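Sample pair:
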Amino acid sequence: MKKADVKIGQILAATSEEELKHPFQGKVEKIYENSALLAITSYDPEDESSVNELNNKMVINFKSLKKVKSPARGKTAATNDVKISKVEPDKKDKESK
């Protein structure tokens, strides 16, 4: 894959023979000169401990990236999305102030 074909937010298939035994999928978070930082979104259950050690992120050379043809069937990594909602104080808390 070429740098021009890689876009931030894109889901790509990747391989890393050094770290993970099986192919995985990841979302592009940052693009470098010859590689991209992927947040691992789907992986083989056998690679779970390695993925956890990598904090669900890995830098992969463009040569090891491919476009995703079908949805992943492996284990899905947890997302880091945080949702914030406003919590109203109890009536007792308002009265004591």
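The longest strand covers residues 35-43.
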